[in-house]
Amino acid sequence: MGDRLRTLALTSGGLGFMRPAPGTWGSLPPPAAAFLLVLVGAPRGAIDGAMLAFVLVGSAACLALGSWGETRFGRKDASHIVADETAGQALVLMFLPLHAISTPLRAMLTMGGAFILFRVFDIIKPPPARGLQRLKGGLGVLIDDLLAGLYAAILLQAIVRLAWPAISGSGSGIPS
Q1: Is residue 176 part of a domain?
Q2: Residue 97 domain-assigned?
Q3: Is there a contact between 88 and 145 (Cβ–Cβ < 8 Å)?
Q4: What is the pLDDT of residues 116-168, one digit of tens each?
């Protein structure tokens, strides 16, 4: 694999070169893809499959090329490397309940909430995420973002399964 392809893999197709906040740009593909899948009427399984593909491809890029990327960009977990953000964000969007994506408005609220929650957890890096990012190579690049994705997924699931139904009293809790 040539340097250009390695760079494209680690920067999620070049999003890692976008400014400001390349990690935010790298987090956009999963919610955008999930929202488009909702708009075209794809079943939830297709959305989960697409998100799993983002997780696997982003994780594989980080694990296989992370050390090379750190050399290429001259620092540990360089801001240009955003395949980890893409993978972590996709993790948040897996296994959403059907009522959370049953209409475009509900899907937009869910995708927006997932995006914000992931970015917050990725930035604050609650324990043990901050410490684990010190691991060498691609694992250190990736693991904190997967943990941020897990934390955000747990909170998002709690919100869409528990809080929204309680607020609306309608069972779905999310506006139509």
Answers
A1: no
A2: yes
A3: yes
A4: 999 999 999 999 988 888 888 889 889 999 999 999 999 999 999 887 766 65
